[in-house]
Amino acid sequence: MSLKIAGPADLHLHSDCSDGTEPPAEVVRRAHEAGLSTIALTDHDTVAGWDEAARASRAAGLVLLPGAEVSAKHRGMSVHVLAYLFDPDHTALSRTMARVRDDRVGRAERITRNLARDLPVTWDDVLAQCADDATIGRPHIADALIARGIVASREEAFAGPLHPASPYYVSHAAPTPVEVVEEVGRAGGVSIIAHPAGRGALPDGEIRSLIDAGLGGFELGHRENTPAGTARLQRYVDEHDLIVTGSSDYHGAGKPNRLGENTTDPAMVERIIRAATGSDPVV
Fold first, then answer.
1. CA-to-CA distance for 267 and 24, rounded, in angstroms?
2. Which residue has the higher pLDDT, 164 or 9?
3. The whole model's pTM is what?
4. β pairing state of 63-74 and 77-84
């Protein structure tokens, strides 16, 4: 599909269908108020918010790229793959995201049990922080700790009891980044590695494997990226003519990230749309 994009685009937004704090329609409303013209809803491992976001985007006159942030792991390191305009009914990708969601629930329960040994928090406290059918994760445990007065913010929770070095922490299962990129491609979508130049960095061999697998590009505009890490990945972009995006990674009140604090060039949005065959943008 070919579509002319004008105005600022923010391609990494979360709703309460995963770990954001606002319903999809509210995310769209706030994006419109922030002056954005193109957005992408990219909740973790779910497409549950697509329909509501589509209705709200049509009403607001925004272009919407339906998407998801798919969880992956490389040698124990968490890697997030932003997937855009894929077929939401594609069997393999749907099953992959469902497995990750199911494991997130079990993992969250195990972390909560560990915390409950020393802190006054229960699984019911965690569930009280989740919207119906939301992808449960550590942010909801953090919100339960906040509600109990144990920590003051998600940032404090992630720096303390929910940190990977904490004795309460439990790892989770996830496919490899290459597996996710391949599945997104088979589902007709375009894959972008989220905040790839921040905490931890993929080795050169893995980056080359991702490009060979059909990786679309990198989210180089993100507050977590470092200048050195961004410059390193820019060399791959230049060599392989990859797509570059910039995004806020908006979570509502769940993170300090502001809508539109990083944006994607319209020409790059158009490249994503042209390359995708799984679903169309909402216009």
1. 26
2. 9
3. 0.91
4. antiparallel
Q: Name the residue among 271, 264, 98, 280 with its Cα closest to residue 188.
A: 280
Amino acid identity for residue 31 in this structure = A
pLDDT digits (tens, 9 = 90+) for 94-127: 999 999 999 988 999 999 999 999 999 999 999 9
Q: State the burial class of residue 232 (Cβ atoms within 10 Å of its Cβ: 0-12, 13-18, 19+).
A: middle
Distance CA 39, CA 41 (A): 7
107 touches 170 (CB < 8 A): yes
